[in-house]
Amino acid sequence: MDRSERILMAHGAGGYIMHKLIKEHILSILPRDSFEVGLHALDDSAVVNGVIFKSDSYTVKPLFFPGGDIGRLAVSGTVNDISVMGGEPIALSLALILEEGFPIDDLDRIIHSIADTCREADVYVVTGDTKVVEKGSLDGCIVNCSGIGRRSRYLDYNFDIVRRFRRDFKARWILDSNVKPGDKIIVSGTIGDHGVAILSCREGYGFESSVRSDVRPLNKMIEKALSVGGIVAMKDPTRGGLANLLNEWSEKSGVGILVREEDIPVRDGVRAACEMLGIDPLEIGNEGKVVIAVVAEMAEEILEALREAEGGEDAAIIGEATDEFEGVAMETLIGGRRIIPPPLGDPVPRIC
User: Cα–Cα distances in Å, from 254 out to 4, 153, 162, 178?
Assistant: First the structure.
């Protein structure tokens, strides 16, 4: 990046452009750590001396949207990034950056939402910080939420099940690099709900009545799946959506991934919005879904466990990893195949 270049919205949109910025201008400068799962792994959380650690900032616009708000988003997003590593979230920090003139009633509403979501996820806010900046500096409120977690009580059992079918499996945590040919890919529900809900609410497209954000903490659903066993990788398809997630797995694991369009669950309202706006639902961020790679022999049992959990009623097996090709491809409804490239970024900015 030469001196004439500047940060763009796309640099925070979760796709290829953001990853390029991180790799070339952050990872290349920061010293490399030697922790069990460190920064350079670019997984959803780090593991430091057995403690799972995550930090995230939330800049969603608008702050309140159909199905949630910035408070519910902050707790859910942080809890989920700990959970998909095979962790049990324990405690959170809460840092608020408030704009001068921000309504106290709105702040109260956000804090009540944070409290309700903490109760739902069974976690606690234990430390935090509050700053106020001049009016016009930001859109009302930004939230930073960090979290710590411990190893799930079901994680070792989960890996024991994996090793029944893959004797050479050696990973101690659920990582993006664990996927192997033959593993089945499962999504816990419909995709694109959150991004379309935010966009419609922000721009007034009129889909608010049929599309609500899926934002929710997933730790209890994930714990139920781990208790069944056989999971090798998990990730929540946030910025850049399912397309970005699958390409990350493909790159880090060195496998091809084939998914089937007819099996990917998409709500009618989301599909209609995407067709009207010319955007791909696979690239839209979600905040209440998890994608799971599981050894083939346990896929149906994991699917059943997800469908029994709250929020998992629409879970589906959508494809598998393969060694027949590189990258990500999709079998289309008309019977052909198309490449699913890494998105440049989420087509809907400021969704989280």
Answer: 36, 29, 19, 10
